[in-house]
Amino acid sequence: MTIKHVISVSSGKDSDSTLLIALDRFGKNNVVPIFCDTGNEHEEVYQHLNYLELALDIKIVRLKANFDNEIANKRMFIARDKRLKRDYKKVPKTDRNGNPVYCKNEDGSVRLSPVYDENFEDKTVILKYVPEQKIGYDSGRKRRWSNKSKRRALEVLIPTGNPYLDLCLWKGRFPSRKAQFCTEELKRNPVVEFQLELVEQGYTVVSWQGVRRDESERRKSALKFERIGPGMYVYRPIVEWTAAMTFDFIYAHGLLPNSLYKQGMGRVGCMPCINARKDELHQISRRFPEHIERISEWESLVSSASKHQVATFIPAPEIKNITNKQEGAKAHGIWSVIDWAKTTRGGKQYDLLANLEDAHVCSSAYGLCE
Question: Could you list the residue range(s) of the whole structural domain that residue 252 is in?
Answer without folding.
Answer: 3-72+152-355
